[in-house]
Amino acid sequence: MRSPTKDFYKILGVSESASQDELKEAYRKLAKKYHPDKNPGDPKAVDRFKAIGEGYGVLSDPEKRKKYDNMRRLASLGFGRRPSSGGSPTPGAGGFSFEDLSDLGGLGGLGDIFSSIFDRGKRPEAGKKKRGPAKGDNVEYVVEIPFKTAVRGGKISIDVSITEECATCNGSGAARGTDMSRCTECKGSGTVSFGQGGFAVNRPCPACFGRGELPKDFCKPCKGSGTIRQTRRIQVGVPAGVDSGSKVRLSGQGERGSHGGKPGDLLITFKVKPHGFFRRKGLDIHVTVPINIVQATLGSTMAVNTVGGKKVHLKVPPGTQSGTKFRIRGQGVRRDGRMGDQYVEVEVTIPDKLSEEEQKMMEEFGSASGLRH
Question: How far is CA 55 from the centre of its chain?
Answer without folding.
Answer: 21
